[in-house]
């Protein structure tokens, strides 16, 4: 019955993907399906609603972060933070190398902040805007940004996913980070090489930097406009809570809007909700966006999908599947089995946190070495969650920067890390003892 229940949900997801329907319809259908499973198992509606509430409460902080991300993406635009960085970087722009630069910059910020969403909302937006100015392919740009954002999300000491993996596997996070750094070297260098090639073929080699004058003409580009970005980095280095860090940056940007950029208070409040709207049509193409409303869809996806975790836990829906997974390990390596399951949990969970928890719950018996299993989770579900088009793991960063969904196909690092680790596990299994 469990297989049938999950299959019905997957059918709903696939139908939405191929028909172009809003993925929220599939998630709503999934809730009805899982609720029906609970009723069939003789749970009362009241009990199932309690399970639903329990699941949603686990992501309340994520929903708050979404709201803050929406606000910061608008505030940084209106305050002149993003325009100042772009204008100041004009002389450093080299089209042929910019894909590599964008990937490296997002890797750096994601390591410093530990959040893929925050990286996409800040450095991701900056790189995408510069890329738009240069006429770069938005699919390649989005892929470089997405891969870089999840590079640090995987191996930063401030990453919630790294901390979650450590807690679930009962391993030391700093030992994990050291091993992650070693295991990522080949995929990291290979990704840089691929982007170097794509950048050299995907650029004309000529950039009209006169377009940067649009930023100078529409904003007061004082050095103080960089303060909201500097605060993000400094507060992250001191390991300040991400909600507090984002809030401080938003408040600082708001003050700069009111004082330096002469934005009216009512206009500012509207921007924080609905997004920044540039008065110049040419500037609007590069800079419009952000706001709380831009995160509503992602928030709905998280709210619905998180309700599943409560039902899964309360009804024991996944218990019987674990036996089948243990049989899979005999045909695949432990890593290969976990990689396969991580793709499925990513499709079902629609967010990284729930996907990590489900993968751990389903595969924790496939690898007796806790340290190795921690590395397996880091190299599978932490990366593959962002490869699911309807998952917020990819939807939020791509929405933040305004990149197309097809950018997932260009997020080279997210493919190379699991494939490299899979190759290592196969070699290790076949090597004579």
Q: Which descriptors apply to this entry?
A:
globular; 0% strand; 433 residues; mainly alpha
Describe the model.
It is a single chain. The protein is an all-alpha fold. 74% of the residues lie in helices and 0% in strands. The protein is built from 24 helices and no strands. It has helices at 2-19, 23-40, 45-57, 60-79, 81-88, 98-113, 116-134, 138-155, 160-169, 173-183, 185-201, 213-218, 227-237, 242-259, 265-274, 281-287, 296-315, 321-331, 334-349, 352-363, 370-379, 381-384, 392-401, 412-430. The relative contact order is 0.16. The mean pLDDT is 86.
Please give the structural blueprint.
Blueprint: H1 2-19, H2 23-40, H3 45-57, H4 60-79, H5 81-88, H6 98-113, H7 116-134, H8 138-155, H9 160-169, H10 173-183, H11 185-201, H12 213-218, H13 227-237, H14 242-259, H15 265-274, H16 281-287, H17 296-315, H18 321-331, H19 334-349, H20 352-363, H21 370-379, H22 381-384, H23 392-401, H24 412-430
Helix pairs in contact: 1-2, 2-17, 3-17, 4-7, 4-14, 4-15, 4-17, 5-7, 6-7, 6-8, 6-11, 7-8, 7-23, 8-23, 9-20, 9-21, 11-24, 13-14, 18-19, 19-20, 19-21, 19-24
């Amino acid at each position: 019955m469990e297989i049938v229940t999950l299959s019905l949900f997957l059918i709903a997801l696939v139908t939405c993907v191929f028909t172009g329907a809003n993925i929220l319809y599939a998630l709503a259908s999934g809730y009805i399906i899982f609720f029906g499973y609970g009723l069939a198992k003789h749970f009362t509606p009241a009990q199932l609603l309690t399970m639903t509430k329990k699941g949603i409460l686990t992501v309340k902080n994520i929903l708050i972060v979404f709201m803050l991300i929406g606000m910061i993406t608008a505030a940084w635009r209106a305050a002149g933070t993003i325009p100042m960085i772009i204008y100041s970087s004009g002389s450093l722009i080299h089209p042929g190398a910019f894909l590599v630069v964008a990937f490296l910059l997002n890797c750096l910020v994601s390591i410093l902040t530990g959040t893929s969403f925050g990286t996409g909302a800040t450095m991701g937006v900056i790189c995408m805007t510069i890329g738009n100015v240069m006429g770069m392919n938005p699919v390649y740009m989005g892929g470089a940004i997405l891969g870089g954002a999840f590079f640090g999300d995987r191996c930063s000491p401030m990453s919630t996913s790294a901390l979650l993996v450590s807690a679930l596997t009962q391993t030391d996070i700093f030992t994990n980070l050291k091993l992650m750094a070693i295991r990522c070297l080949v995929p990291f260098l290979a990704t840089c090489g691929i982007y170097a090639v794509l950048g050299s073929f995907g650029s004309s080699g000529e950039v009209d930097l006169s377009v940067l004058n649009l930023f100078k003409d529409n904003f007061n580009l004082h050095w103080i406009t960089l303060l909201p970005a500097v605060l993000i980095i400094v507060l992250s280095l001191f390991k300040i809570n991400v909600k507090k860090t984002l809030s401080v940056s938003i408040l600082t940007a708001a003050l700069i809007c009111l004082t330096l950029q002469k934005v009216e208070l009512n206009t500012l409040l509207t921007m924080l909700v609905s997004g920044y709207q540039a008065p110049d049509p040419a500037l609007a193409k590069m800079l419009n966006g952000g706001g709380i409303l831009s995160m509503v869809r992602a928030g709905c996806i998280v709210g619905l999908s998180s309700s599943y975790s409560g039902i899964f836990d309360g009804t024991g829906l996944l218990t019987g599947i674990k036996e089948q997974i243990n049989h899979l390990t005999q045909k695949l390596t432990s890593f290969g089995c976990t990689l396969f399951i991580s793709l499925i949990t990513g499709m079902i969970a629609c967010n990284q946190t729930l996907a990590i928890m489900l993968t751990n719950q389903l595969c924790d018996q496939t690898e007796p070495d806790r340290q190795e299993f921690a590395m397996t989770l880091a190299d599978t579900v932490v990366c593959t969650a962002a490869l699911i088009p309807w998952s917020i793991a990819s939807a939020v960063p791509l929405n933040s920067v305004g990149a197309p969904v097809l950018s997932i196909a260009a997020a080279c690092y997210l493919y190379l890390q699991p494939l490299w680790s899979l190759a290592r596990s196969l070699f290790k299994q076949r090597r004579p003892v």
